[in-house]
Amino acid sequence: MQIRLASEMTYDSIVDGEGIRTVIWTQGCIHNCPGCHNPSTHSFNEGFLKDVNDVCDEIAAVEFHDGITLSGGDPFCQVNACLEIAKFCQNKGLSVWCYTGYKIEDLLKRCLNEKKIKEFLENIDVLVDSPFIMELKSYNVPFRGSSNQRLINSKNSVKLNKVVLYKD
Ligand code: SF4
Q: What is the SS3 assignment for 21?
């Protein structure tokens, strides 16, 4: 299986979730949020393809980190590949954060018919959800760009089928 990436992974990030994280930059996003800080990641034709096994090998070779962050782009535009990476990390005891322009409420509805979405959410520790809204841009919301975005406890949200926040 292959994944379309925007760039090689970033190591030792402290701004894409708690702790020291390895960031995977997926390519492709449908949301087109005005003011997006990463517009070059929107196209589904740009970036490059990489085998998911190679991504996992690179993650396994990282000597010290707390986990990975799937960013982009929107990882939910490549659910199958991102699910494999998330499962690999969870099996290794690494935490998984994931950014998405979707709202968790909409993803939970899709869980009914799309098993991979459900499985992906079950393998994410913290989901940073919702589109970036320029008018709500804030530097006071850790790990987010605008104040409408939320840090969600993804596993408990699936389990209880309702929004469970990780932190305000
Ligand atoms: S969801 Fe993220 S990557 Fe996609 S347009 Fe919005 S801010 Fe940009």
A: strand
